Structure formats: structure tokens, C-alpha cells
Amino acid sequence: MNSWLVIELSDQLEWPVCLEVKIKRDVVEMWLGSRSVAMIDRDALAAWLAEPVGTFERHEVALWMSELGPVVEVHNRVRPALVDPRVLGELRERLVRPPDPDE
User: Fold this and answer.
1) CA separation for the pair 88, 93 (Å, rounded)
2) What counts of helices (H) and strands (E) characterise the chain?
3) Buried b (16+ CB within 10 A) or exposed e, 42-62
4) What pLDDT is attached to residue 1?
5) 96: which DSSP letter?
6) Cβ atoms of 3 and 94 closer than 8 Å
7) Helix 42-50, helix 85-95: angle, nearest 10
8) By the 8 A CB rule, do 39 and 29 touch?
9) Can you say whether the dihedral through the CA atoms of 57, 62, 63, 66 is positive or negative?
10) pLDDT at 58
11) Can you tell me the distance from the alpha carbon of 42 to that of 47, in angstroms, rounded to the nearest whole number?
12) What is the spatial distance between Cα 2 and Cα 48, in angstroms, rounded to a whole number?
């Protein structure tokens, strides 16, 4: 079961761009248009979103918390940009795995 989430950002020239987040069973893919900019272990991203300390960086994408809120950067493509905390909250909720009925 795959799920998509779109994070609206601005590129280096202040043009609007969409960071598309594809949530798969074990991996989270991040895309700018047709370019894959990150493939992230789903559980590692979920753990960081639950307690966002320091910078979470994979491939071309970096996430961190500033005094003003969450920040996303795509190296050489999207300048550091504040993201609505509700968007990352939604991503965090989607990454939580449902309990295994066999456990």
C-alpha cells in the first residue's frame, strides 16, 4: 500500500516547487518532478519525526527543526524553507505502522 504526500517549497529562484513524498512499506521516496532526491528507511524517518533532534539528512534532502519550525532543504535545488508543522505531523502519522494482529 503506497501513499503520497506533497510538501510545497520554493526553489533557488523562489519559484514554487513540490517535494512529492511517496510512502511505501519499508521506504520513503522523495521526488522533485521526475528526479528522485532521496530514498529513506521508513522507520528511521518515523523515529526522527517522533523526536526531531539534530539534522536528518539522506541523499539530497535535509530536515531539521529551527526556532521558527521545521525546515526542509534539497541540496542545490531547494533553499532551506520552513514547512507547515501540520504537514510534517501528517507525514509522521502516515509513517506509523499499524499494530501487527499476530503479536
Assistant:
1) 9
2) 2, 8
3) beebbebbeeeeeebebebbb
4) 67
5) S
6) yes
7) 130
8) yes
9) positive
10) 97
11) 9
12) 21
Please choose, from the candidates 32, 29, 85, 87, the residue with its C-alpha nearest in 3D space to the C-alpha of residue 58.
29
The pLDDT tens digits along the chain (103 residues) read 689 999 999 877 778 899 999 999 999 999 999 999 999 999 999 999 999 999 999 999 999 999 999 999 999 989 999 999 999 999 999 998 877 777 6
Euclidean distance between CA atoms 100 and 89, whole angstroms: 23
C-beta separation of 65 from 51 below 8 A: no
pTM equals: 0.89
Local structure of residue 44 (DSSP, 8 states): H
**What phi and psi values does residue 101 have, to the nearest 5 degrees?**
-65, -15
Q: How is residue 68 written as a grid cell?
A: 521558527
C-alpha cell at 8: 510545497
